[in-house]
Design a protein that fits this description.
The complex is a heterodimer.
Chain A: H1 4-10, E1 17-18, H2 23-31, E2 40-44, E3 50-55, H3 56-64, H4 68-72, E4 87-89, H5 94-104, E5 113-116, E6 122-126, H6 128-216, H7 222-239, H8 241-272, E7 280-283, H9 285-300, E8 304-310, E9 316-318, H10 320-337, E10 342-350, E11 354-361, H11 368-373, H12 391-401, E12 405-411, E13 415-423
Parallel strand pairs in A: 1-2, 4-5, 8-10
Antiparallel strand pairs in A: 2-3, 5-6, 7-9, 10-11, 11-13, 12-13
Chain B: E1 6-10, H1 14-24, E2 29-33, H2 36-45, E3 50-53, H3 62-72, E4 77-82, H4 87-95, E5 101-104, H5 109-125, H6 131-135, E6 145-149, H7 153-166, E7 169-172, H8 176-185, E8 190-193, E9 196-197, E10 200-201, H9 203-212, E11 217-222, H10 227-237, E12 241-244, H11 249-267, H12 271-274, H13 284-296, H14 298-305
Helix pairs in contact in B: 2-3, 3-4, 4-10, 9-13
The chains are: A alpha/beta, B alpha/beta.
């Protein structure tokens, strides 16, 4: 930042006095209106270099003495000047100038300071008051910028949390949509097969009805009966109902099962992604776990065997959709930590005041350094583009807002275990988390 | 009577297997396995013409199964049947498993029947080629012609080195018109192409060549990561490799070596044996474009039918 003009704006073009000016003459100068706002006047040598500052304060001291003017009036001012005045180079930044001035400031303030150019020549006078005003206006400006930055930051944080939510929701929806394709695949195919298989059966029914008509009709002649008998026999051979019976039963059973699976997934999705973020009084966390496992199934099934040890839990007050989000996040992380095929163990149990959930994987595990940072926003071990680095930090906040804790234990090469601890009773109103 | 075609379906969902078995048991000898490891054991001891595998199974992915199957029984036609649109899986299934088709669940009964009919037809024509044959280095005297349709200097560097080392001829086309000229007048063995050449889409050309010139092997290099597009390139252009940009030299080089070995093998086979049977493009404008490209490649067609 180029701050050189900052000091130039503070420069007061005060005509400097030669060092041999008499004290009386200097006193006259102080009385001139143009100099009324200065505490001191500048003195320079023949080369225009600063020689010192003479302060109003010093002169007052002299003139207040008895016979002061008579004793001192004709003496050169160099005898009472401050020979080491504060010199500030014009291209110094405002902050640096302020620092230098503060360092030399005396109480009461007696002197101004001299502004010099790069060659050390006198340029003008500066006053402490002007520097203070300039600093204040700058601080005010900075404050406004900072306030705006804070507003922007809060906004983008909300957006980030929202995008993490959308990302995990999107991942979940895509997962379930894919999961639906398996039952949908065989149900669709089975319905097509059932249609094909039913055609010969319908033909057989028609042929047999024809035959029955023939038999019931006394006027039916031999050739017609023979044809009807023949047609019924052929249809029967083609339809092979005895062989078909088992296939049909199997097809109906599988189709029914598949539709059940589809319904279960759709219900699971609905339960899981309850749009209300509200608190609910009576939540069995085991239901949340089952729901999260159903939703995460497509991410888990080719990565790990899931072992559930769900103990009996008292119903607790919590926001189930938020807890689901945490559980899904932990389960997906567990699956991603596993190379090849592993094991994920989900346990729940109750203690006197708390309900606990443990999710343990047999994955890569984490080093102590990584463990320290996993709850930090934007920390991620995943490649760029995968994962926002917000999953665990949001999970942490959700559990914290529930008055609970989330803890991690991990051993490199052995696996990782997360333990969630939620109070059986909410101490106070659940804070709305992001 | 001709040999009965044996199809092995592998899926961890038994109901999928039952449904497929019921659909196809009259036309084919249908085998099913819900465990991919048992499926591989079976391939070692039995003849299987067509292998259809799911992607997500506990213990082994479909892409892994198909890659292992290619080593055990290279003449078996491999098809991936998956409910997941997963780019990595599709790339692995193509590059390591050399799949004939990528089908999605839920599948269309007619389309599945048609695909299996085509696969069975091709399988019967194939001369059993052993994995060893495919992996043996290209004989030094076999100079191939490679046409490059990509102005990326990184691609060029790898391709140029491959051609110099292998003694192959490198031809470069700056646009589609030039590419068509080369194809009409030179007998090209390998094609390395971006999906975009000087602002033109090369996909219709790749699809045209798959129908017209089954001995030509296409390697696609592209910065785009689109599962749907890759699926179409597999089914409709029957590309040999799909390599995402930025190019990884080792992988690209391995692909080029494999393509060269395959091209040499194809040279030794009859026209009937090398036939490819790509799926016709679904997209109407693209189908028209393929039609007009077929016309523009008249010289190539004449030469191939001669």
């Amino acid at each position: 930042m180029n701050t050189a003009p900052a000091l130039a704006q503070l420069l007061r073009a005060v005509q400097p006095l030669p060092v041999n000016t008499s004290i009386s003459e200097v006193a006259e100068c102080f009385l001139q209106a143009v100099h009324s706002s200065f505490l001191s006047l500048p003195l320079v040598d023949e080369d225009g270099r600063p020689a010192g500052l003479v302060s109003r304060y010093a002169l007052q001291n002299i003139f207040m003495q008895r016979f002061g003017r008579d004793l001192w009036g004709n003496k050169p001012v160099s005898e009472v000047m401050n020979p080491q005045p504060l010199l500030v180079c014009l291209d110094t930044s405002l902050e640096e100038a302020a620092r230098q001035i503060t360092a030399q400031l005396q109480s009461p303030i007696r002197d101004d300071f001299m502004l010099i150019d790069a060659q050390g020549r006198y340029c003008g006078l500066g006053t402490v008051l002007d520097v203070l005003k300039a600093m204040e206006s700058r601080v005010g400006q900075r404050n406004r910028v900072l306030r705006q930055a804070l507003v922007d930051l809060k906004e983008s944080q909300v957006q980030l949390v929202q995008s993490e939510k959308m990302a995990s929701l999107g991942q979940m929806v895509a997962g379930v949509a894919h999961e639906l394709n398996t039952p949908l695949g065989y149900v669709t195919n089975n319905v097509q097969l059932l249609r094909e298989l039913s055609l010969p059966l319908l033909q057989l029914a028609t042929a047999q009805a024809e035959l029955a008509d023939c038999l019931a009709d006394p006027s039916c002649d031999e050739p017609r009966l023979a044809a009807a008998l023949d047609s019924a026999a052929t249809s029967r051979a083609q339809a092979a109902p005895e062989l078909l019976a088992e296939d049909l039963q199997q097809l109906f059973a599988d189709t029914g099962y598949g539709l059940g699976q589809i319904a279960e997934l759709v219900v699971g999705l609905k339960d899981f992604a309850r749009l209300d973020r509200a608190m609910s009084e009576q939540v069995d966390l085991n239901d949340c776990i089952r729901s999260a496992l159903l939703i995460a199934r497509n991410n888990l099934k080719d990565k790990a065997e899931v072992l559930q040890q769900l103990g009996e839990l008292p119903a607790i007050a919590c926001a189930p959709s938020q807890i689901n989000q945490v559980l899904l996040n932990l389960l997906n992380n567990a699956a991603q930590a596993i190379d090849g095929f592993g094991r994920i163990q989900v346990k729940t149990w109750a203690e006197a005041d708390y309900v606990l959930i443990s999710i343990e994987d047999s994955g890569r595990g984490m080093s102590a350094e990584v463990q320290k940072r996993i709850f930090d926003p934007f920390f991620t071990t995943k490649p760029v583009g995968e994962g926002t680095g917000l999953g665990l930090s949001i999970s942490f906040k959700i559990i914290q807002d529930h008055g609970g804790t989330i803890r991690v234990a991990s051993v490199l090469g052995r696996g990782t275990r997360f333990v969630l601890r939620l109070p059986r009773r909410q101490a106070d109103q659940l804070k709305r988390s992001a | 009577m001709s040999e009965r075609i044996r199809i092995l379906f592998v899926d961890d969902e038994e109901r999928i297997l039952r449904s497929l078995a019921l659909q196809f048991r009259r036309e084919y000898e249908v085998l099913t396995e819900s465990d991919p490891r048992r499926a591989l054991e079976r391939l070692k001891s039995e003849t299987v013409h067509v292998l259809v595998s799911d992607q997500r199974m506990p213990g082994m992915t479909g892409a892994e199964l198909l890659a292992a199957a290619q080593q055990i029984a290279p003449q078996t036609l491999r098809i991936l049947l998956t409910g997941y649109s997963d780019l990595d899986a599709a790339v692995a299934a193509l590059n390591n498993g050399g799949i004939f088709r990528y089908l999605t669940k839920p599948w269309d009964a007619q389309e599945m029947a048609f695909t299996l009919r085509q696969a069975g037809e091709l399988a019967l024509r194939q001369v059993p080629a052993t994995a060893a044959m495919l992996e043996s280095p290209v004989p030094a005297e076999t100079a191939l012609k490679l046409l490059l349709l990509d102005d990326d200097p990184q691609t060029l560097a790898v391709v140029a080195e491959f051609c110099v080392t292998g003694g192959h001829r490198l031809l470069r086309a700056a646009n589609l018109t030039e590419a068509l000229q080369f194809l009409n007048h030179e007998s090209i063995d390998l094609l390395v192409s971006d999906l975009n050449l000087a602002g033109e889409n090369t996909v219709p050309l790749l699809k045209t060549l798959a129908r017209l010139h089954p001995r030509l092997l296409s390697l696609v290099v592209t910065p785009f990561q689109d599962t749907q597009a890759l699926l179409k390139l597999i089914n409709e252009a029957q590309i040999f490799r799909y390599l995402p940009k930025p190019i990884r030299k080792g992988l690209f080089d391995k692909g080029l070596q494999a393509a060269a070995a395959q091209a040499v093998l194809l040279r030794s086979q009859s026209a009937a044996q090398v036939q490819r049977l790509p799926v016709a493009p679904r997209d109407e404008p693209e189908r028209e474009r393929v039609g007009s490209l077929l016309g523009m490649l008249g010289r190539l067609r004449e030469r191939l039918s001669a």
